[in-house]
Amino acid sequence: MLKIGIVIASVREGRNGKQVGDWTYNYATTEKAEEASYELVDLKDYDLPLLGLQPTQEQGAAIKAWSEKMASFDGYVFVTPEYNRALPGAFKNALDYLQPELNNKAVGYVAYGGLGGLSSIQTLRLINAEQELASVRTMVTFSIMADFVNMSEFKPNDYHKDNANKMFDQVIAWSKALKTIRG
C-alpha cells in the first residue's frame, strides 16, 4: 500500500496550519483510505538549524529524523501558508536538507492565504521540480478571508472537497506510477 505524508509546513506560533493539516488528513483517511495510508508530519516537531550552520547534537538528530521520515513516503501533500508571496522560510530550509529522499515521488498542494496561497504553490513547484518531485495539477486553496472566521478559525467551504478528491486521486496515481521506477 502506498504511504503518503501530509506535511504541515508552518512553524509559526498561532499558525492556522495545524487546522488545515488536520482537515487534509481527516479528508484523506475518510475518503481515500482504501488507496493509501496517510501520516501527518508537522515540521514544528523537527528543530532544524539553518542549512550551512553547524548543528548541535540535538539538531543533527533532528536532521536525520526529518530525512528518514521524508524518505519513508511514496508521495506527499504539502500544507502551506503563503507568507509575503512565498512559502514559509522554515519550510524552504527544511526542503533544502532533502534531495534523494524526494526523487521520483509525487506531491500535491494544499495552501491558504489572502489569495489562497497560490504564490506559495508557484514557488514550491519550482523548488520541487529541482528536487525531482512531480507536482500534480489539482491543488486545494483556502482563502484566509472566506474559509476562516476572523482569519483564525478554520471553517472551509464544502466546494473544496471536489478539488481535494481530484488532488488525492492524482497524487495516488502518480505515486503508484513513480514507485515502479524507484524499484
Could you explain the architecture of this structure?
The chain is of the alpha/beta class. The chain has one domain: Flavodoxin domain (Rossmann fold, 3-Layer(aba) Sandwich). The chain contains 5 helices and 8 strands, in the order βαβαβαβαββββα. The strands form 2 sheets. Strands 1, 2, 3, 4, 5 and 6 form a 6-stranded parallel sheet that branches. A two-stranded antiparallel sheet has the order 7-8. α1 packs across α5.
Describe the protein's topology:
Elements lengths: L1 E7 L8 H15 L4 E7 L14 H15 L3 E7 L7 H8 L8 E9 L4 H13 L2 E3 L4 E4 L4 E2 L3 E2 L5 H23 L1
Parallel strand pairs: 1-2, 1-3, 3-4, 4-5, 4-6
Antiparallel strand pairs: 7-8
Helix pairs in contact: 1-5
Report the biggest beta sheet as strand number plus sense, adding barrel if it closes. 6 strands, parallel
Shape: globular
In whole angstroms, the N-to-C terminal distance is: 14 Å
CATH topology tier name: Rossmann fold
Measured as a percent range, the helix fraction is 40-55%
Total number of β-strand segments? 8
Assigned CATH class: Alpha Beta
Oligomer: single chain
Protein name: Reductase
Pfam family, one: FMN_red
InterPro entries: Flavoprotein-like_sf, FMN_Rdtase-like_dom, NAD(P)H-dep_reductase
Organism: Erysipelothrix larvae
